[in-house]
From TrEMBL:
CDD domains: C2_ArfGAP
UniProt keyword list: Abscisic acid signaling pathway, Calcium, Cell membrane, GTPase activation, Lipid-binding, Membrane, Metal-binding, Nucleus
Protein's name in the database: ARF GTPase activator
Family note: Belongs to the plant CAR protein family.
Species whose genome carries this gene: Rhizophora mucronata (Asiatic mangrove)
Cellular component aspect of the GO annotation: nucleus; plasma membrane
Length: 165
């Protein structure tokens, strides 16, 4: 616990225009990795625009570690096919948390992260103070694939007894 800063809740919202890996569609799921941790969503059958709306929670020890997101197509009789990957960091999000902001109007934009070659963002990402919490909505463009994006939201969870940000 002494190395734990807190928990990062990643809400995997949906996939947009994901690649077709079966005959006419795909059976996608998402794997999120940070360091040695690895979590995955459920499989959504025959859908290249899946809606997962699923929360995956990572324990954060080092906020400088990047987060890898990989989309796979579930196959019953063969190895699952990769449908693209993205990598992003949480440094701007952690900096916003460290500002220790309180009592801002809900919807206040704290900072914006612009897309660049190193962050896989498909559009500008806003870090927002919403309902007493700091959240970041991201739309990441998948690499090493012909098409596809995944929409996610980050939210921090403080843990009693953890080191904290």
């Amino acid at each position: 616990m002494e190395h734990l800063l807190g928990l990062l809740r990643i809400q995997v919202k949906r996939g947009v225009n994901l690649a077709v890996r079966d005959v006419r569609s795909s059976d996608p799921y998402v794997v999120v990795k940070m360091g040695q941790q690895k979590l995955k969503t459920r499989v959504i059958k025959k859908d290249v625009n899946p809606e997962w709306n699923e929360d995956l929670t990572l324990s954060v020890m080092d906020p400088n570690l990047p987060i890898q997101l990989t989309v796979y197509d579930h196959d019953t009789f063969s190895k699952d096919d990769k449908m693209g990957e993205a990598e992003f960091d949480i440094q701007a999000f952690v900096e916003a948390l460290r500002m220790n902001l309180r009592d801002l109007p809900s919807g206040t934009i704290i900072t914006k992260v612009k897309p660049c070659r190193t962050n896989c963002l498909s559009e500008e990402s806003c870090i927002i103070y919403r309902d007493g919490k700091i959240v970041q909505d991201l739309c990441v463009r998948l690499r090493n694939v012909e098409c596809g994006e995944v929409e996610i939201q980050l939210q921090w969870i403080d843990l009693p007894g953890s080191r904290g940000i």
